[in-house]
Each structure stands twice: as structure tokens, then as C-alpha cells.
Amino acid sequence: QVQLVESGGGPVQAGGSLRLSCAGSGRTLEGYNMGWFRQAPGRDRESVARLRWSGGLKYFPTYADSVRGRFTISRDHATNTVYLQMNSLKPEDTAMYYCNAYRSGDEHWGQGTQVTVSS
């Protein structure tokens, strides 16, 4: 069973940066498609960035249009951790951010970490 724990959220001013971490435990995250999602109050959860597994140790990233060029998803195989580097943050990036691991019907979510961007 995979457990995911996010950290790194908090308050930040517009234009600032944060790095979110998603630590996996229970089993390796190798072979899982990894993703960061976010949900703002009153809105649906949306995909922010994904790291899709393409075999072996190869993964390729995709981003929502709203964050492309500002956010970067990456992973550290040695520590079983996935990151989301967020730069040039905007007030509209304010949301609860969730880590997701998925493969072949096996899906896991973390508990979320709050990001609040003030103008």
C-alpha cells in the first residue's frame, strides 16, 4: 500500500516561490504516474502537473496551461519523493495541493498541503 505525504505549503507573497514535496512510503513509486493537483474553495480539483511513466526510469512531464513555465515537477528516485517547484506565484494559485500516484487502477492520494498566495 502506498502512502503519500505532502509538505512545503504555506503563505507566500505574489511573485514568490515554494517547493512542495510528496514523500512516498509503503512501497516504491517507480512505475507510478505521479501528479500534483489542486483545489480552491468552491472549485473542482484540477490537474497542475503530471509525470507520466514511459517505461524503465523514463518519465515525461506535462503541465496545465495556467502553470506552464512557472512550475516544474520532478522526482528523486533515491528518496521516493516527488517535487513541485512553484515560481512566480500568483494569488490564483491559492489552493490545497494534492499529490497523486496512479497506475492500472491503483490510485493513491495524499492529504494535501495548503498554498496561500497574497497580492
Question: In a few lines, what is going on in this structure?
Answer:
The chain is an all-beta fold and 119 residues long. It has strands spanning 3-7, 10-13, 18-25, 33-39, 46-53, 59-63, 71-76, 81-86, 95-103, 106-109, 113-118.
Task: Describe this protein's structure.
The protein has 119 residues and is mostly beta strands. The chain contains no helices and eleven strands. The strands form two sheets. Strands 2, 4, 5, 6, 9, 10 and 11 form a seven-stranded mixed beta sheet that branches. A four-stranded antiparallel beta sheet has the order 1-3-8-7, with no helix packed on it. It is globular and about 40 Å long.
Radius of gyration: 14 Å
The chain-level mean pLDDT equals: 95
Largest sheet: 7 strands, mixed
Residue stretches low in confidence (pLDDT < 50, at least 5 long) are none
Q: Name the helix and strand elements from N-terminus to C-terminus, one letter apiece.
A: EEEEEEEEEEE
Question: What is the distance, rounded to the nearest whole angstrom, between the alpha carbons of the first and last residues?
Answer: 40 Å
Instruction: Give the class from helix and strand content and strand pairing.
Output: mainly beta
The helix content, as a percent range, equals under 10%
**How much strand?**
over 45%
Number of strands: 11
Based on CA inertia axes, which overall geometry fits?
globular
Question: How many separate helices?
Answer: 0
